[in-house]
Amino acid sequence: MKDKEAVFLQKINERRIEAYKVLYDDYYPALVVYASAFVLSDEVAEDIVQELFVAMWEKQLTFTSFWAFKTYLYKFVKNASINHLKHQDVEGRYAEYIKGLSLEEELSESELNNEEEYRLLFQAIDELPPRCREIFLLSLEGKKNKEIAALLQVSVDTVKTQKMRAMQRLRESAGVLFSFWLSAYILTC
């Protein structure tokens, strides 16, 4: 069994298509079930597992042991599921806030602009690459770079780079005024 695992791991590290087919056949159903336990949606769970496979392929990850490989699979799915739930919570709170506004109240122009900025923020954050979005959302929760790095098992430099990429993309998509607000918020965290 150990030899079979070593051969499989070597093929995964070499990004061989046949290894990814085996990965899909052997791990996809179990990982979807695992993700479903968190997100309570098969469709979302399937998206998370597909995101995992794409990330592995694109990042050209290499694993030193079969145990590290399996740990990575399940940790990625768990973190992505939790991030999905956090994002749902933020969207839910925002939706409740909007519902709470009286229909009879007239919003001033500045309030409308603020609402539009928040909508653009959530839209822009949704469009970030998965790891970049994950790190950015953790920083918005007030987590420090070291905490994020430990939580995601990446280097502090990776966290800093991903946060900078997020800020750059948000600045490009959300405009100067909005990026100023975001920059001020991130610097206080």
From TrEMBL:
Gene3D superfamilies: 1.10.1740.10, Winged helix-like DNA-binding domain superfamily/Winged helix DNA-binding domain
GO molecular function: DNA binding; sigma factor activity
UniProt protein name: RNA polymerase sigma-70 factor (ECF subfamily)
One GO BP: DNA-templated transcription initiation
InterPro entries: RNA_pol_sigma-70-like, RNA_pol_sigma-70_dom, RNA_pol_sigma70_bacteroid, RNA_pol_sigma70_r2, RNA_pol_sigma70_r4_t2, RNA_pol_sigma_r2, RNA_pol_sigma_r3/r4-like, Tscrpt_reg_LuxR_C
PANTHER family: RNA POLYMERASE ECF-TYPE SIGMA FACTO, RNA POLYMERASE SIGMA-70 FACTOR ECF SUBFAMILY
Lineage start: Bacteria, Pseudomonadati, Bacteroidota, Bacteroidia, Bacteroidales
Domain annotation HTH luxR-type: ranges: 142-169
Keywords tagged on the record: Sigma factor, Transcription, Transcription regulation
Organism from which the protein derives: Bacteroides reticulotermitis
Alphabetized Pfam families for the sequence: Sigma70_r2 (PF04542), Sigma70_r4_2 (PF08281)
Record-stated family: Belongs to the sigma-70 factor family. ECF subfamily.
